[in-house]
User: What shape does this take?
Amino acid sequence: MTLAMRASTTSAFVGLMRRDLRVLSREIAPFLIRVAMNPLLFLFVFTYVMPHMSGGAASPMAGMAGAGGFGTVLLPGLMAVAIMFSGIAAVALPLSTEFGITREIDDRVMCPLPIAAVAAEKIVFSAFQSIIAAALVFPLAYYIPTTPVLAHVSSWPFLITVLILASLLAGALGLTIGTSVQPKQIGLIFGVVVVPITFLGCVYYPWAALNHIRWLQVLVLLNPIVYMSEGLRAALTPSLGHMPEFFILFGLIVFLALLTRQGILGFSKRVLS
Amino acid sequence: MIVEILGLRKVYPGKPPVTAVDGIDLRVEAGLIYGLLGPNGAGKTTTISIATTRALPTEGVVKIAGVDVVAQPALARRSIGVVPQYNTLDRSCTVAENIFFHCLYFGMSRGESKARTAQLLEQFRLSDRAGMYPQALSGGLAQRLQIARAIAHYPKVLFLDEPSAGLDPQSRIAMWEAVQGLRQQGITVVLTTHYMEEADELCDRLAIIDHGKILVEDTPTALKASVGGDKIVDLKLHSFQNASEIVGRVLKVDGVTSAEITEAGVRIFAKSGEGIITQVVNASDGLGVRDLATTEPSLETVFIRMTGRDLRE
Assistant: This one.
């Protein structure tokens, strides 16, 4: 690739980012409501309402969570869910309309950059939204639970690495889903993919706590969300016990590489006949 | 040559496989309005999709301004503007933003993009709708915006796929004027159409395409002249029993170049001249002629002569 072509790819990429940023800034309120609603309600029901109902003892995870309460288990898990939902909402859902009725994608594909870069831009911009979504969970987890959440960042570089990898991974997942599913089936994806990977993603319980159900503990290793929630758990609430850090990073990188490849291939296949 | 197509073939896999383009060779000189005329399903859109990097050829080479579209699609796209058959406007952006971001994608600075946007909105008379969203535009306006956006990065060639499909007659004429204006700015235009009048009115050169092959390629005037004669006389008959008799007789008339039996009666091609119609009528007198119509040869006549079919079938 010559210098001029690299410059043109870069400027087209930046142009696409600016366009996405403009559209997002115009829809900032619906965006914030969308990303905040799930963690808000989860925290409210499980760490505020339920403890009040039973005098603080009956929370299902109270024992496991130690002094921090269920909120401490939920904080990293809800961040992982926020990151993943953002990836789906920012890539998979818009793609289903762009591929479907409007074929708007044909316009983006005519930009002077490789098709793979158009797909990569979607992953990167989605990651940006995921990070905002994850950051929103913090204030909610600070104010809502009755028992204060015990969060402690021992390594900022580790937290930032996990956050970035997890956010890119969510975008790649969104791209893979958005390009592999027919537009009219996109609604079904929530039931068939999103809900199962969330519930089996070590979001509402630490992976270590699955040691009593060994087969499940092994099976969930195929779920990329596990590495997202365990990574954030290791970075934010290490007192709970988590997967080895090396293993988390390995899982995040492997799934990121796999899903990015799959997503870009699927994207090229959909736009090039 | 701004567009060079060599031995282009496109086969869509499936059962059975569909050959959409079956060996097309085409060269378009810079500065022309070039038309691909043919019925629906002839392979026009596929040819354009390949030339604009949105489909991959099974065989053959397409070069735009010397750049191979398969080997270097991103580079080729810098020279290409495209308006597909369907509306691909960015629904999340306003009319002005559609052009503005397009300019950014093609590497213009913010300032340049703003200036170019204002200029194009003015040129295409869209300034008063700059803040509207594409969903609110009529078909004609959306089409105009698509053309404005497609040429915003100063492409060398603009591809228009069925530009007048779905437009009312008034918008169609406005679109023709816009396209002629582009030629004056030095932009080569390649368009597909299945409207004869459009091809005739607008194009400097034409290729007539059917079943993925080019049947003939020339200027509209030369194509029409190729029919042989500049006057067509259609005789409608009560019955066909005397049809061949009529053909035999009118062929003896001075100035008649050919005659053939059609579904409605007999079609006669002749050089127009004093008394030709009277002579044809006299020659067929008493053989059951019900009615008579005369026309000039059109591209439709050319197409029917080449394929034996009507373009609209």
Notes: Residues 3-271 of chain A form one domain. The two ends of chain A are 25 Å apart (CA to CA). The CA atoms of residues 210 and 216 of chain A lie 7 Å apart. Chain A has a mean pLDDT of 86.
